[in-house]
Design goal:
By secondary structure, the protein is mainly beta. The protein has 1 helix and 9 strands, in the order αβββββββββ. It is elongated, with a radius of gyration of 33 Å.
């Protein structure tokens, strides 16, 4: 091999070796797209323990001549191995905490909107007004008559007047 060939081949060789072990040294991979059939996140101490899974499953088919449909799903598993959340055609979750729930029709128009709406407080003098929130449900872009708000404390009753003293007998 001539010296000129070495100046071409050796840098390319070192570049290829560096690219091959880069993800091993940095312990991370950066890419624009990943194409795969299943993606699983496992526990570092126990690789058999799945923490999250992005995959597809075959839908149940009662007719053996029909090919089963496939549907995508995302599963999250808690530390005890129980499924916490599954997202497929339906969302299965025990508790949902969100700032807004929006249901839209196929064209993207909001049908149902449940959210916390700010309610301005009253200003007293020059003090800053406080803002509180109340739950509101909109159906077809119109507020429903039901407003979800924290219960209001009943007004304090004024003390009943003391009984008047008896009049002196004359």
């Amino acid at each position: 091999m001539s010296e000129r060939e070495r100046w071409i081949v050796y840098p390319l060789l070192f570049f290829a070796l560096g690219a091959a072990i880069r993800d091993k040294l940095l312990q991370r991979i950066e890419t624009k797209e990943i194409y795969c059939e299943s993606l699983r996140i496992v526990d570092q101490q126990d690789p058999n323990r799945i923490l999250a899974e992005l995959s597809f499953r075959r839908a149940n088919s009662t007719d053996p001549t029909q090919l089963a449909d496939r549907e995508g799903r995302l599963r999250l598993i808690d530390s005890d191995g129980r499924e916490v959340c599954e997202l497929n055609r339906n969302l299965t979750v025990q508790r949902l905490a969100t700032k807004q729930l929006l249901v839209i029709d196929p064209s993207g128009v909001p049908m149902i909107n449940a959210l916390a709406e700010p309610v301005p407080g009253m200003m007293l003098g020059e003090a800053d007004s406080s803002v509180s929130y109340r739950g509101v449900i909109y159906l077809n872009n119109r507020p429903m008559g039901i407003r979800l708000a924290p219960p209001v404390a009943p007004p304090k009753q004024a003390p009943s007047p003391a009984p008047s003293p008896p009049l002196p007998a004359s």
